[in-house]
Automatic annotation (TrEMBL):
Keywords: DNA-binding, Nucleus, Transcription, Transcription regulation. InterPro entries: WRKY_dom (IPR003657), WRKY_dom_sf (IPR036576), WRKY_plant (IPR044810). GO terms for molecular function: DNA-binding transcription factor activity; transcription cis-regulatory region binding. It comes from the Eukaryota. Residues 17-44 form the WRKY domain. This is WRKY domain-containing protein. GO terms for cellular component: nucleus.
Amino acid sequence: MEEIRTEANQGVTLPTARKHVERAPDDPAMLIVTYEAEHSHTAPPPMQENVAAGVESGFELRVPNTHKETMEDMNGDSFQKVKQRFKDRTMKVAQTKEMLSKQAVQTKEILSKQAIKFAKQAEEHERFINKVVFPFLKLKFC
């Protein structure tokens, strides 16, 4: 047992849990993780009593037969809806890539035009300097 002291629990002793990881026998890509620890509270009633109590109260316990049924139960979405959402997201990603590619081409064209404009301005400035400054320097040193 491990004692952890915080302001909230005022030194309550917490049991240490043991983690056990194993591969699922029917699907090696799946892992089964279980934790074991000793508990200080009373054990819940056996499973059959819980199931019987649930049936009496109108609660239906249903175990999915297939992977597809499990997918249908997840968030109320069917497998087809989940598949369509991924397809829609993939389409949006493709559209975004296309838009960004077009913007990159446009930006490159704009920058090229600006570079040409700056080069022309530099040539004009150089011609102006040659016309105005050099004759002045010739007069000064003559």
